[in-house]
Specification:
Elements lengths: L3 H17 L7 E3 L1 H5 L11 E4 L2 E4 L4 H4 L14 H6 L16 H17 L1 E6 L12 H26 L4 E5 L3 E5 L14 E6 L6 E6 L25 E2 L10 E4 L2
Parallel strand pairs: 1-4
Antiparallel strand pairs: 2-3, 3-4, 5-6, 6-10, 7-8, 7-9
C-alpha cells in the first residue's frame, strides 16, 4: 500500500484524473440489480456497462454489447477484471481488481479513457468502488494508486527501450546466433544504429541484447560538455559479447 507523501500524491492524481474524465462528485447512483436490467434485451430500459464503478450508456455500440454481440458479457455489470486481463470467462467478468498488477490496472485506465471518450457517463454503481452516497471507497483509492504506479512503470520501460532498443536476432544450426542493430531494430525508429551489447536488468538473472549508442553524451545528459563522446558504452549494466568487435553493428556467436 502507498504511504505518506507518495500515497497522497497518487490519490491527488487519481482524483484529478477522475474529474478530468467528466465525473462530478455527485450523480446518478445505480444498484447492481438496476444495472442488470440494462443489458439491451427486449423490454429492458437500456444498455449499460460499468468500469471501476463508472456506468456508461453503450446503446450506440449495441452491435458490440447488445444480445449476440461479441462483448455482450460486459453489459449490465461491472466487468473491470475482464477488460484488464482479457479473461471473458465467468471468473473474469467481475469487478474485483484487487489481485491485478499495476501494469494490468494501467491497461484498465485505458479502457476508462476509451469509454469516457465514446459513450455518455450515466453515473456510479453502488458497491465495490462507490458507497451509497456516491463517495469513492478504499477499493477505488487503492486501484487508482496502483494505476498511477503502473503508468509510472510503463513510462520507465518506454524510456529504457528508447535508450536501449532491442537487437534484431536470428539463429540457425549452421551459423549459430546473430545479433545486429539497425535504425529500426526493436521497433524503435531513431537516427542512430548502435552496437549490440548484453544488458543486465536489476532483479533479473538473464540478459537481453540491446543496441547502444556509440557517440555523443550519455543518455539523459544532452547538454553535457564533460563526456568522452562514447554514448552509453560505459553504462555499468552493459557487457560486450565475447568474440565480437566492440564497435561492430552485428555479432555472430558460433555454436
Amino acid at each position: 500500500m502507498w504511504r505518506g507523501a507518495a500515497a497522497a500524491a497518487a490519490l491527488c492524481l487519481g482524483a484529478a484524473w477522475l474529474l478530468g474524465r467528466g465525473f462530478e462528485p455527485r450523480g446518478r447512483l445505480l444498484s447492481a440489480a438496476e444495472l442488470r436490467r440494462h443489458r439491451g434485451a427486449e423490454g429492458e430500459p437500456g444498455l449499460y456497462l460499468a468500469v471501476l464503478g463508472r456506468v456508461f450508456d453503450v446503446q450506440s455500440g449495441r452491435k458490440h454489447y447488445g444480445p449476440g454481440g461479441a462483448y455482450e458479457g460486459l453489459a449490465g455489470r461491472d466487468a473491470s477484471r475482464a477488460l484488464a486481463t482479457g479473461d471473458f470467462s465467468p471468473a473474469g467478468l467481475v469487478d474485483d481488481v484487487s489481485a491485478l498488477s499495476p501494469a494490468e490496472l494501467a491497461a484498465l485506465r485505458g479502457w476508462v479513457d476509451f469509454y469516457s471518450a465514446r459513450y455518455a457517463a450515466v453515473g456510479k454503481l453502488v458497491g465495490r468502488f462507490y458507497d451509497e452516497d456516491g463517495a469513492p471507497t478504499e477499493a477505488l483509492r487503492q486501484a487508482e494508486a496502483a494505476m498511477a504506479e503502473g503508468l509510472r512503470l510503463k513510462a520507465e520501460s518506454d524510456r529504457r527501450q528508447r535508450q536501449f532498443p532491442p537487437c534484431n536476432s536470428e539463429w540457425s544450426s549452421a551459423r549459430g546466433s546473430r545479433f545486429w542493430c539497425s535504425r529500426q531494430s526493436g521497433g524503435v525508429k531513431r537516427d542512430w544504429i548502435g552496437v549490440p551489447r548484453k544488458l543486465y536488468s536489476p532483479g533479473s538473472r538473464g540478459t537481453q541484447c540491446v543496441c547502444v549508442r556509440t557517440t555523443g553524451p550519455p543518455w539523459g545528459q544532452p547538454d553535457s560538455t564533460e563526456h568522452s563522446d562514447r554514448g552509453d558504452l560505459d553504462n555499468p549494466h552493459l557487457e560486450e559479447y565475447d568474440g565480437c568487435h566492440p564497435l561492430a553493428e552485428q555479432c555472430v556467436l558460433d555454436m
